[in-house]
Design a protein that fits this description.
Blueprint lengths: L1 H4 L4 H20 L6 H18 L3 E2 L19 H13 L22 E4 L10 E7 L14 E8 L4 E4 L1 E4 L4 E7 L4 E11 L1 H13 L4 E9 L2 E8 L9 E3 L10 E3 L11 E7 L6 H4 L10 E5 L4 E4 L18 E4 L2 E4 L11 H7 L4 E6 L1 H13 L4 E2 L11 E5 L4 E7 L9 E2 L6 H6 L7 E6 L9 H21 L4 E5 L11 H4 L1 H15 L5 E3 L1 H6 L11 H15 L10
Parallel strand pairs: 2-14, 18-21, 18-23, 23-24, 24-25
Antiparallel strand pairs: 1-11, 2-3, 3-7, 4-5, 4-8, 6-7, 8-14, 8-15, 9-10, 9-13, 10-12, 11-12, 13-22, 16-17, 19-20, 20-21
Helix pairs in contact: 2-3, 8-14, 10-12
Amino acid sequence: MMEKYFPKYVPFFSLLALSGLLYLLWSITSLESWNCQTVSTFYQLQNSIQSVLKTSELLLPAEFNYSFCAHLGQEPTVEEAREESYLLKTIAWPESSILGLPLRQSSDPAQSYYIIQDTGDLRVGGQLVVKVQMHNFLGQPKKHGGDFLVARLHTPELVAGVAGQVRDHNNGNYTLFFPLLWAGVVQVELTMIHSSEAVMVLKRLREEQSDRVFFKSLFRSGYISETTLCNLCLPLKPQPLCNYTDPQTGEPWYCYKPKMLDCDTRINHSKGGYKKNLLTVYESQFFQSGVNIKVPIHSAGMDNVTVRPASKGRTKKMRLEFTPSGYYYKGSWKSLSGVVPRQFNTSSLINQCLRGKMLYMYGDSTVRQWYEYLITHVPELKEFNFHSAKNVGPYMAVNMNYNTLLKYRCHGPPIRFTSVSSAEMRYISNELDGLRGGSDTVVVISIWSHFSTYPVPVYIRRLRHIRKAVIRLLNREPTTLVFIRTGNLQKLDAESSLFNSDWFSQQLDAVLRAMFKGLNVQLVDAWEMTLAHHHPHQLHPQLDIVSNMVNFMLSHICPVRKKKKRG
């Protein structure tokens, strides 16, 4: 008789058993006196149940692929999508007409050359034009463009230098344009960063291997700790994800869910490492130090010319193909933006300029250099000890006598720092929304290097959020000073080129300039300031360059007052 009626009570007894099991697990996990092995066993059982019951975790769809990575997060509006399309077109790189060329037919900087076009009456205010012909390793002229070249004009004796513009004619020929800004003997310096064939490889990596720098997070609860991989997008696995998408901006970030712990037990964020074996044997030929990575191209004739002072009484200005943001003369950066450059070479001058100011620095380690520079050169600035990890922050310093406040905080993920507390992971746009602003507020933003491995739309989306926050800040308090530091060139070898190539930085730099054009912000042109200087390229520029960047900022905070004309 019992067997006849038992089936209809199965759901009731199952629900009762499940409720009892859940209660037992809750009791067990609240007892800290249990040993680690016992707790681990029950955590595994608890995890299997929670994976079914909890809805806060995200499972990757079956059709997930890397091209979807750039579009994770909030869908762009029609206007945003149009802007993105425009920006991607503006940075489109010339495609090689013939794919799969052997190394011997690729660009050889040793056999390429340049020729200075006009060595006649060159004067300050004019321009120098230089023609470049690229050859392959067979000594034959190349028939297509796409090589990544950079150039500068300099006078070592005057510690003077300026960046040049490179125009690609898409046929193996290039033209360099240099403005002539000082008198004396000037030398042309031309460098091939990458061949066109190498750029094609970098484009592939950017689109197909966006996780070539990977990240991780530590999860911990009681005696249990686990570490899992994290990124903007993660390879498809039959494993649930923890979704850390920022609620304010919609910026996505994910970690694989730990096997035993919940998503809300995340402790930190850190760089996991770099993927290896990214290139085929064929592709690796185009990344050889001393052969085709950052190799100089020499002149077929003279490499220098003499520039004479500007002609007296000359009123008609020459049309220049390229106007830089500034140049070096006697080691000092001379901005061409209209602000009179000043030298703040004593702590007293810096203190006077920053009196009553709150200076907020957000971003990567290249803006952290500014904070470190000021702390080093202004002894009156006293740091608070937040017990922050070295080179990570956040940092804060004050000068009580001058009522000055300095703060530095790194930007949100992706950030390739050793270990950042989850509680300290903040997005720049959210931080800007927390500022009152005003004439006593100065903001410096630098965000570029850590986005070099991702498709460009990822960077566009991040800048768009920052731009919106900057506009809101300036609408609240139009007198707020905002500085945007651009990316800079750096040292490259075969391995670092795959992650931090100057070509990646150049692409991001062009996007940043376009997106903040027309806004009331000051662009600190770190690209030109590193290209025009005689120091070797480094991710963290040398002290001379940082000093000039800080002086540029201080010159805007404390501009030279124009003398009133007597009536």
